[in-house]
Every structure is written in C-alpha cells, then in structure tokens.
Amino acid sequence: MKNIAILCSGGDVSGMNPALKHFVEYAKDKELTPYFVYDGYEGLIDNNIQEASYSDVSGIITRGGTKIRSSRSKRFLQKSYRKIAKENLDALHIDKLIVLGGDGSFAGMNIFCQEHDLSFCGIPSTIDNDIYGTEYCLGVDTALNVIKTSIDAIRDTASSFSRAFVVETMGRKCGYLALVSALTSGAELCVIKEKEISLDHYKDDFLKQKENGRKYFLGIISEGATQSASELAEWFEKEIGIETRICVLGHIQRGGNPTIYDRLMAYKFVSKAIDGLLNQEKQSVICYTKKGFEYKSIEEVTSKKYELDSELLAYS
User: Fold this and answer.
1) How do the domains of the chain map onto residue ranges?
2) Which pTM value belongs to this model?
3) C-beta separation of 33 from 3 below 8 A
C-alpha cells in the first residue's frame, strides 16, 4: 500500500486549508491514498486518523484555520506516547507524513523519525515567519494583509481625532510582522526586540512634526518587544503631548480568508513535499529561498536561529 498522511501542529495559519485541499488532490494524482490526522500530534496518539476524500476538502480553500484542527502536544514529548503514535500509523500502513508547523513541531518529528522508520517532510507554517532556512512561511501573507487592513482603518480614526495609536502585533519571539507592517503602512515608529531604540531619539523630531502640523502618529510594536504597548502609549502622552490609544490585534492575525499568494504557495509547498517523499527525501523541510524551493535537513532548520533581513532593519 502507498499511504500518506498530513497533520497540522502548533498555531494555525490561513493557508492550511488550501494545503489540505491540494494534498488530497495531488496525492491521488500520484496514486497515493491520503489520510488526515486530526488534532495534530494528539491525533497521532489518539488514533484520530482518517482516510481523506475529495468531499472532505470541497469548499475549504477560502477558509482560514485548518479543517483537521491543530494542537500543541505535551504527550508527544514522551517516548511512550510516540511509540503509540507509530503503532497507529503502522496499523494503517502509513509510512509517509507531512507536517504543517514550525520549528518546534519539526524538532519533535525529528526525534520521532530517529526512533522509528518514517519518511517525513515539513512545510514551514507560521505567521511569525521565523523559521531558519526559508524566506517565506505559509500563512504570513494573509496575516500581513489582516494587519494592513487593521492599520489602515486605525489611521482613519487617528487622523479624525488627532490621536496617536499604538498597534501591537503578534510576534513573541520575532518582530517580522511588526517590522514589515510598520514599513508598509508608513508608521512613524516601530518597536521590536531585534533593534534597540531610544525613544528620546524620536522626541525632538516628533515635536517638530507637531509644530509643523502633524495631527496623529502611528506606532507599531511587537508583543515580544522589550518595551510594552502601555509604556509606548505613556511616552506619546507625556513626552509628545498627544492623546493615545492602544490597539492589540491579537488572534485576528491568525485567521481570515487566505490570500491568493498563500493559496498558491500552499499548492507549491505540498507538491514539493510529496514529490520529495516519493524521491527518497526521507526527513526534510521544504524551504523557499532566493534560489527557489530547497529540501533542507531538520537539523539545519531547527538548530539555527532565524534573523530578520538586515536591509529591512536598516529602513525601520
């Protein structure tokens, strides 16, 4: 039997459902029997594994999130539960597995594959876009567009009331979303942990802008920054003398109708993942680089730290 399964692990992203749709279609084109693992690694342990059909993916391409759900499994960290997971896969004759997730999910799968004979391919899927070795992670384009729409709307009310707004994006460990959103929205201030700034450096310039007629300011801050949104808002009010509001975007950034680019990349990632597994790429992560798609070892992807583009940092 030629059976292949797919699961989602960690935070959900828009683009997972288009990936699931193409997984079923492309697997069948390659004469493979596709299986869905529901609830991530928890589903592997609980044997929540079901054969997938065209009807299972009908109409899901426009939906955010993931139809097969996701999880962060603490049980999968234990060898005894990983043994149960492998037994469940063996019972269904599944020897190929695709995981949509981040480097934590890949690290767990790396251990799993070292203990058991299993072919695995990871697809980088995180709105933080912070996986080493890939320029792009599935879901980040939709997240950036959600943030863009939110900031554009906030700008309207900021200018109407002559206020400053501090907008907090996700990114506990990486400031990618805040950095790119600040640059592409024309925000006056970007605060991320990857670049130390002194607010005093901006004070004279912002006060001069006020004297010359500026009525509002936008500050974008990552949730993982050394300063907090409330501290930044307090600075605007005390030092710049402008009424300030805070807007925490939160989990709205994870959902939403997947963009065209995320849908297209979902198709490409899945095709490359399946092709790799059929061509003896036994344990790898499919990465998108300046050279195109490349298969990289899990060790390389999980052992090195992602760094923001230095050129973008210089512009911020």
Assistant:
1) 3-139+258-304, 141-253
2) 0.96
3) yes
What is the C-alpha separation between 74 and 216, in angstroms, rounded? 46
Q: Using DSSP bridges, classify how beta strands 3-8 and 33-37 pair: parallel, antiparallel or unpaired.
A: parallel
- What single string gives the DSSP state of each residue in 278-316? HTT--EEEEEEETTEEEEEEHHHHHHS-----HHHHHH-
Task: State the Cα angle at 61 between 118 and 270, rounded to 5°.
Answer: 30
Give strand pairing partners of 287.
294
- Annotated active-site residue in 39, 95, 128, 262: 128
Task: Evaluate whether 167 touches 177 at the Cβ level (below 8 Å).
Answer: no
Determine how many CB atoms are found less than 10 A away from the CB of residue 53: 12
What architecture (CATH level 2) is domain 3-139+258-304? 3-Layer(aba) Sandwich (3.40)
191-202 pLDDT, tens digit each: 999 999 999 999
Q: Collect all residues with Cβ–Cβ distance below 8 Å to 78 and sequence separation of at least 6.
A: none
Q: What is the DSSP letter of 135?
A: S
pLDDT tens per residue across span 158-210: 999 999 999 999 999 999 999 999 999 999 999 999 999 999 999 999 999 99
Angle at 259 between CA 255 and CA 265, to 5 degrees: 105
Tokens of 77: 């960290």
Give the C-alpha separation, 294 to 2, whole Å: 24
Cα(103)–Cα(119) distance, integer angstroms: 17
Q: How many CB atoms lie within 10 A of CB 30?
A: 15
Model pLDDT, residue 52: 98
Q: How far apart are CA 132 and CA 160, in angstroms?
A: 42
For 126-155, the pLDDT digits (tens) are 999 999 999 999 999 999 999 999 999 999
Note the CATH number of domain 141-253.
Answer: 3.40.50.460
The answer to whether residue 200 is catalytic is no
